[in-house]
Inverse folding.
């Protein structure tokens, strides 16, 4: 990762923060992007304290202009970004479809799906794709419906297709794009899910969840050239070969 510049969207806590730490530990300069600029700045300071280069930029992935500004600021302060990790997502609204608020439902899609589009569109600019990497953080919810999660499942299904569309259009030009579904990770989103009491996922114990550092290590591996042969695919945490290659323990 030495000499690489990585933008992590949704990096103020949880998985996004862990990904930023891991990329920085491997030599990348990192840009942490979040609506909560203060929390992102705290993570950036912790990374910088290790001797790595890290900056935080406040921005809402649901706004294309914000993502354009993020990429421009990255270019001005660090240089053109080489890596984009799309981690921004929200789980709300949780509830029966007929009870959901249309504005909240659209807001989920705005962050979880359109946010990834906005970041990737700004990252790629006019199509300069060669040697660059996009990792979209996917979910099992992209392929299986869960009660109460109609907005989140729909948005993640769209994100899966966005990954495939980017690979189909720009893979031949040198863009490496991946989807990665990390499974159940011990993050703030899981706290919200447990509090909802809806569907079996809400009844998972915290000790059944993966620490964020495990999927972060796999995502960082996908950003490396060692994973080039896997480009264009959606992968998940159950992939034993990927876990082995990324140096994380096998599943029990």
């Amino acid at each position: 990762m030495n000499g690489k510049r990585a933008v992590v969207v949704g990096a103020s806590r949880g998985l996004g923060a862990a990904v930023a730490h891991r990329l920085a530990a491997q030599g990348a300069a990192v840009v942490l992007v979040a609506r909560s600029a203060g929390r992102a700045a705290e993570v950036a300071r912790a990374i910088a304290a290790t001797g790595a280069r890290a900056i935080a930029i406040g921005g809402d992935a649901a706004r294309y202009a914000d993502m354009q500004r993020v990429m421009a600021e990255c270019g001005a302060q660090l240089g053109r970004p080489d890596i984009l990790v799309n981690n921004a997502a929200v789980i709300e609204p949780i509830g029966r479809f007929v009870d959901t608020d249309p504005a909240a439902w659209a807001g989920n899609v705005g962050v979880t799906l359109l946010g990834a589009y906005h970041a990737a569109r700004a990252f790629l600019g006019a199509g300069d794709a060669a040697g660059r990497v996009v990792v979209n953080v996917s979910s099992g919810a992209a392929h299986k419906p869960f009660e109460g999660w109609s907005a989140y499942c729909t948005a993640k299904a769209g994100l899966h297709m966005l990954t495939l569309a980017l690979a189909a259009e720009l893979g031949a030009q040198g863009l490496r794009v991946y989807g990665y579904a990390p499974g159940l990770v011990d993050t703030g989103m899981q706290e919200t899910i447990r509090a909802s009491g809806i569907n079996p996922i809400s009844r998972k114990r915290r000790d059944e969840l993966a620490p964020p550092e495990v999927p972060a290590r796999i995502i960082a591996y996908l950003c490396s050239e060692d994973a080039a042969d896997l480009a264009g695919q959606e992968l998940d945490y159950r992939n034993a070969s990927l876990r082995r290659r990324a140096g994380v323990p096998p599943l029990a």
